[in-house]
Every structure is written in C-alpha cells, then in structure tokens.
Amino acid sequence: MSRSINIVYFSWVRERLGVDEEQFVLGDEVRTIADILNLLADRGAAHADILSDVSKLRFALDQDYGTPASVIGSAKELAIFPPVTGG
C-alpha cells in the first residue's frame, strides 16, 4: 500500500533546490527518513549535492525532530532544514 508525504524545505536547502515543497508517494519499502533521503538524492544533482552530508541538515516528521534512522510511520510531513543558530 502506498502513502504520500509532503516534504518541506527551509533556508538554504529551499534556495538551492528552488522549491518550497514536494509531494511524494512512498512505497511500502520506504520506512525511515534515510529511505526518503535516498529517493530524493536520485532526483537530480541539486538534491544529491544537498543530501551528500546529512550531518549539515536537520529533520522533523510532523514537526517533531528526527534523525535519518527515524521511522516515518503515519507522518504526513517531513521538513528538511539546516541547523538553527541563535544569537
């Protein structure tokens, strides 16, 4: 059974991709954030470049922080963004 997820990009990730968000239909084999990242990296050079070092990125599933190992479950949204710096 397939399901869909909305992927939202913030800050320089959004700027480099040139899109705010993308909708994906996920197959049953896609279980973790890392699985989605692998699919995204296959979309083209810009995606692959941005995702080449995930230590420079942060993730949230339905607004709860996650890691590449986090299970997607029934999440409807994945946000991808750089670490937030304060001041």
From TrEMBL:
<protein>
    <submittedName>
        <fullName>Molybdopterin converting factor subunit 1</fullName>
    </submittedName>
</protein>
<dbReference type="Pfam" id="PF02597">
    <property type="entry name" value="ThiS"/>
</dbReference>
<dbReference type="InterPro" id="IPR016155">
    <property type="entry name" value="Mopterin_synth/thiamin_S_b"/>
</dbReference>
<dbReference type="InterPro" id="IPR012675">
    <property type="entry name" value="Beta-grasp_dom_sf"/>
</dbReference>
<dbReference type="InterPro" id="IPR003749">
    <property type="entry name" value="ThiS/MoaD-like"/>
</dbReference>
